[in-house]
Amino acid sequence: MSPALTTDDIIINAKIHKLFYGNFFAVRDTHLAIHHNKITAFIGPSGCGKSSVLRCLNRMNDLVRNFRVEGSVFFRSKDIYAPRVDPVAVRRHIGMVFQQPNPFAMSIFDNVAFGLRLHGMTRDLADRVELALRRAALWDEVKNKLKQSGLALSGGQQQRLCIARAIAPEPAVLLMDEPCSALDPIATGKIEELMKDLKSRYTIVIVTHNLQQASRVADMTGFLYVDTKQGGRTGYLVEYDRTEAIFQDPRDPLTRQYIAGAFG
């Protein structure tokens, strides 16, 4: 059994009352606290708003036309949606890795150095790049080919390169949107082990359709579902608890049915 979590452990406190893309009401009533140095997983059927909620946590949704949100996301006691908060600065502290490995069309070194240069963190650049690659468990595989294109790596290596790029600027939180969905089981296992290693330094939030993956790696799990009562498809948070509680003794009947495979 995990030790008791307290409010002192909270690094992000999100209260998403309503989230829209234009006229589409995408998410409602999703309030959750992300705990420091833990792995939190969002699970649920397709279209329930998992990725939308994830992208709210570092304002990536700002890049989507006609996006708007009602609510707040407090990171270290400051609302990242408050006036005059710079979204680029937010993403320096809350990094992101996407579903498909997306290395830039540049060298392995320059891929990792990209964010460092963007944020003016160029002192000891080579050392910072090496450290990020080591933390992403990729250094030994690429140390002799740093000038080669990141696109030449295998899919699993590319995803670890993207993780190295995300953690190079030393964020506090790392968001991962289905980071293993495009990978084979061996590469997936490496990413899962890497996540477990990284949580000693970073708070990690993942979206996954893989219930077994959530049960293996996550400390906390949130189950989202889709409300279709009004003829639309609005996602909302059904239940949020320790992973063992979600998978072994869920409180809500919907969670129980989803975990049992009654729908997906």
Output the keywords:
264 residues, alpha/beta, Rossmann fold, ten-stranded mixed sheet, 10 strands, globular
Summarize the topology.
Blueprint: E1 10-21, E2 24-35, E3 39-43, H1 50-56, E4 67-75, E5 78-79, H2 87-93, E6 94-97, H3 108-118, H4 125-135, H5 139-142, H6 155-167, E7 173-177, H7 185-198, E8 203-207, H8 211-217, E9 220-227, E10 234-242, H9 243-248, H10 253-259
Parallel strand pairs: 2-10, 3-8, 3-9, 6-7, 7-8
Antiparallel strand pairs: 1-2, 1-4, 4-5, 9-10
Domain module tally: 1
Overall pLDDT level = 94
- CATH class equals Alpha Beta
Distance between the termini: 28 Å
Order of helices and strands: EEEHEEHEHHHHEHEHEEHH
Low-confidence region ranges:
none
CATH superfamily, by name, is: P-loop containing nucleotide triphosphate hydrolases
Bin the helical content: 25-40%
What count of helical segments does DSSP give?
10
- Principal-axes geometry comes out as globular
Q: Report the radius of gyration as a whole number of Å.
A: 18 Å
Instruction: Give the structural class.
Output: alpha/beta
